[in-house]
Amino acid sequence: MTDNALAGARVLLGVGGGIAAYKAADLVRRLRDAGAEVRVVMTANATRFVSALTFQALSGHAVRDSLWDESAEAAMGHIELARWASQVLVAPATVDIIARLAQGRADDLLATLCLATGAPVAIAPAMNQQMWAHPATQANLATLRQRGVRVFGPDSGGQACGEFGAGRLMEPHSLVAALAATQAPGDLAGWSVLVSAGPTYEDIDPVRFIGNRSSGRMGFAVAAAAAARGADVTLVAGPVALATPAGVRRIDVRGARQMHEAVLGLAGASDVYVAAAAVGDFRPDQVAPRKLKKASDATTLELRLVQNPDILADMAALTGRPFLVGFAAETERVEAHARDKLERKRLDLVAANEVGPGRGFEAEDNALLLLWPGGREALPRAGKRELAEALLDRIVQLRQGRQDGNPA
Questions:
Q1: Residue 100 pLDDT more than 90?
Q2: Taking Cα atoms as reference points, which of 175, 187, 223 lies closest to residue 34?
Q3: Do 304 and 285 contact (CB within 8 A), yes or no?
Q4: Contact between residue 186 and residue 227 where contact means Cβ atoms under 8 Å apart
Q5: What is the structure's pLDDT at 1?
Q6: Catalytic residue annotation
Q7: Which of 176, 183, 223, 343 satisfies CB 3.0 to 4.6 Å to 195 for a cystine?
Q8: pLDDT tens digits, one per residue of 57-73
Q9: Looking at per-residue confidence, does 348 or 165 come out higher?
Q10: From CA 55, how far away is CA 60, in angstroms rounded?
Q11: Does residue 356 surpass a pLDDT of 90?
């Protein structure tokens, strides 16, 4: 997806008062590189992090930060700005800004502009992970979404406060791509894309379970990228602590059988299925109704495991099945094992990666080897959103080749 859709766009960028405000400077530059004209409105707190002069130099326009600018307001400047914009983007959108927008407040210039404009409004949240997860914040976001406000992000990762989790501002290049996707149909417009992500947990008793280290980030990145490119996306997620990507429907499951039921139930309405989830192969034969207690003389515990249903194999057996993309997380002989999975399960494409300490599941970046009948492509180590875009590029090429009757 290119950013040409932003050529000639009039973007009113609202900058909130958080440490992520420094990224808004790069965002202005990237928006202008994409062909947009940018004007910046800052909150009073934002000026404590980045100077207005920085944004003036980058945007080429004077920056506004107050309703009480007498020279501008003599001509009703806030209304003029609201009418000028073809798109409003608030980045970073702090928890306070989100709350005030949800309440319909007009107590500063930025909030007033968001009420006075007829242009689409998008916000890119940035805050501490506990603030993001708070029910009040999530309720305010739900209110804004119902009113048609687009929510971009947030990303998950290390935060300035030293904590780790969801709440990081999306990177400027990703925000530009997301905004561009709202301006014109993407290359996946009209596609129905089904993605599964994260681990599955198989309960042993009410306290313990068998699981794996999958964070779900790769599958969530695929879902976010597909939605930004115009696809109708449904995400079936195992137990993860990640925010739902903008424009994506989410179904939460816990175990492999739940995921199997959800995915197979959506197969007929899907054009593409990306199986990024790390589904447990086995589960305990019986789930204890109470916590298993350690006997005083016991030194071992035996669990009888039974095999879970194979989601990809069952999808491949369907008549009129979707385009199937599997993932292979391997600790050795990565290409050999992935090629075997591709052929044995009759997939259209498999994305393989090596997992282990610092690689794959628990890392913010990754490297993928894409394999398909008659072809391969190595994607070097990069952020998972970048890899998701490259994966979707290959899916588009292969699926189009299949529809045209041509080999990839």
A1: yes
A2: 175
A3: yes
A4: no
A5: 42
A6: 161
A7: 223
A8: 999 999 998 877 655 54
A9: 348
A10: 8
A11: no
* Residue pointed to by tokens 């004209």: 37
Amino acid at 113: L
- Beta strand 232-237 with 248-252: parallel, antiparallel or unpaired? parallel
State the Cα–Cα distance between residues 327 and 361, nearest whole angstrom: 12
Enumerate the H helices of 34-167 as residue ranges: 52-59, 70-73, 77-84, 95-103, 109-116, 129-133, 135-146
Shortest CA distance to 220 belongs to which of 170, 180, 255?
A: 170
pLDDT at 71: 57
CB 163 within 8 A of CB 242: no
* Residue that is written with structure tokens 């989410």 in the block: 250
Q: Which CATH number fits domain 192-288+300-404: 1.10.10.200, 3.40.50.10300, 3.30.1300.20, 3.30.870.10?
A: 3.40.50.10300
Which helix (DSSP H) or strand (DSSP E) does residue 266 occupy? helix 256-266
Q: Assign domain 4-183 one CATH number from 3.40.50.300, 3.40.630.30, 3.40.50.1950, 1.10.10.60.
A: 3.40.50.1950
d(CA 123, CA 102): 12
pLDDT digits (tens, 9 = 90+) for 181-228: 777 567 888 899 999 999 999 999 999 999 988 889 999 999 988 987
